[in-house]
Amino acid sequence: MSTLISGFSKLNKEEKIAWLMDNFLLDYPESKTVLSQYLNSDSKLQQLHDEFIENTISNFYLPFAVAPNFKINNIPYVIPMAIEESSVVAAASLVAKFWSKRGGFKAEVLSTTKIGQVHFMYSGDFADLETYFNSVKSNLLSATEFITKNMRKRGGGILDIELKDKTKSLENYYQLHVTFETKDSMGANFINSCLENIASTFQKEDIEIVMSILSNYIPDCLVKAEVSCKIEELGDNGLEFAQKFYQAVQIAQVEPYRAVTHNKGIMNGIDAVVIATGNDFRAVEAGIHAYASKDGVYKSLSNCSIDNGVFKFWIEVPLALGTVGGLTALHPLAKFSLNLLQNPTAKELMQIVAVAGLAQNFAALKALTTTGIQHGHMKMHLNNILNQLGASKDEKNILIKKLNGSQITYNLVSKAMDELRTEKIKVK
Ligand SMILES: CC(C)(COP(=O)([O-])OP(=O)([O-])OC[C@H]1O[C@@H](n2cnc3c(N)ncnc32)[C@H](O)[C@@H]1OP(=O)([O-])[O-])[C@@H](O)C(=O)NCCC(=O)NCCSC(=O)C[C@@](C)(O)CC(=O)[O-]
Ligand SMILES: NC(=O)C1=CN([C@@H]2O[C@H](COP(=O)(O)OP(=O)(O)OC[C@H]3O[C@@H](n4cnc5c(N)ncnc54)[C@H](O)[C@@H]3O)[C@@H](O)[C@H]2O)C=CC1
């Protein structure tokens, strides 16, 4: 078996697959069929997907769903979600309806500043460096004017360039710390292009540029979403529910093991909408988890209060999202999602995504502090277990009815399936 290949990227799709089949998939002959089943029959659409990334051999589907009944700042929304995990969309839908009857979600963008840095090494005198920086600062801005022209017309562009002395952390290490407003784009490519021009203008013999890159840590690009209602509006056991819910949030504030899972539940909602709208979920994930650790300990992203008989639950998250650029217009389903959301601005999309995260967190905490998570989650996951066991449509119908109300586990379903098939044989 030859596991090293040069020129793989130059092979066409069929040749790439043939090489994989010959070298890594000898025991899985059906793999060629599996890969081709996931190709689109529309060759233009397939080519579009092939060209999103490199060495494409097929498409990897995620279910694309919608959660209706959201009300955000009094505007109704149906939220698109791309996710593989059962019960997330059901939970979002359940909570959307619940809060729509209690005033809906309120959301507000707190700030939209993004950051990029030119990292460099310098061993000379700091005062000389500072003098040099001050003397070239306006040149650094003018060197990017051809890139920032249109962004400035939109009210964005470079906000400031600062020189930062980082030598206490690393010998000879300095930065140009640049702040940006990128309006409706996420701004990664725009920021990186500006930074590279700034770096080449700033460079001189005693300054060694190490790299120029945006930061995905954006604590000044923040959105807040919240829900609130009178305790009695929460239902018959409103106070008991609210108090237990509050405790659950406090635990996630002080216990990192719990906070990580708590925030994972929030990301169920956030990632699903970020992916559905063609945004960069890795950037969002990295930025949000860094923000959750901003006080030196990893904490809950959401908060809860019970004051004067009012239950309030809110989240504050950093989000760098685009409604233009990247794949937002290029991926037909991302374009569909943005249309479904009534073509939001980046700020509006930040609000929608934060709400999806808060809704998901509310659903999970409601389930966890009342019925337990497995009740609802496994009810939704039952279909996956049945599919895994190869159940026919009839078998599924019978078993879903039979297992209604039971505590669903793989073993229980598998046993019920065996019993059903044994019964069928006996009848025959
Ligand atoms: C699962 C539910 C929603 C069931 O909740 P339920 O009350 O049993 O649902 P229902 O059958 O009575 O239906 C009520 C509504 O729920 C929605 N709904 C209900 N079923 C569906 C469905 N099949 N398809 C679409 N929507 C559905 C839908 O809105 C429906 O209204 P309708 O459409 O009938 O007017 C509830 O138990 C729940 O919200 N559970 C929480 C689920 C959850 O958080 N899942 C995430 C995965 S677990 C995890 O990853 C994170 C976690 C939990 O670890 C995070 C943490 O620890 O914090
Ligand atoms: N570390 C990271 O997060 C990195 C991410 N990326 C990728 O970069 C892409 C996002 O970069 P972008 O610069 O946003 O995309 P992009 O390169 O597609 O540029 C978007 C462009 O749209 C134009 N535009 C039109 N109307 C606009 C409006 N109303 N507001 C703002 N701009 C408008 C601007 O010229 C803007 O530069 C994503 O695909 C991301 O995955 C790339 C490098 C690093």
UniProtKB/TrEMBL annotation:
GO terms for molecular function: hydroxymethylglutaryl-CoA reductase (NADH) activity; hydroxymethylglutaryl-CoA reductase (NADPH) activity. SUPFAM superfamilies: NAD-binding domain of HMG-CoA reductase, Substrate-binding domain of HMG-CoA reductase. Gene3D superfamilies: 1.10.8.660, 3-hydroxy-3-methylglutaryl-coenzyme A Reductase, Chain A, domain 2. GO terms for biological process: coenzyme A metabolic process. Its EC number is 1.1.1.88. It is an enzyme of class 1 (oxidoreductase). Pathway: Metabolic intermediate metabolism; (R)-mevalonate degradation; (S)-3-hydroxy-3-methylglutaryl-CoA from (R)-mevalonate: step 1/1. Keywords: NAD, Oxidoreductase. It catalyses: (R)-mevalonate + 2 NAD(+) + CoA = (3S)-3-hydroxy-3-methylglutaryl-CoA + 2 NADH + 2 H(+). Belongs to the HMG-CoA reductase family. This is 3-hydroxy-3-methylglutaryl coenzyme A reductase. It comes from Aureibaculum marinum.
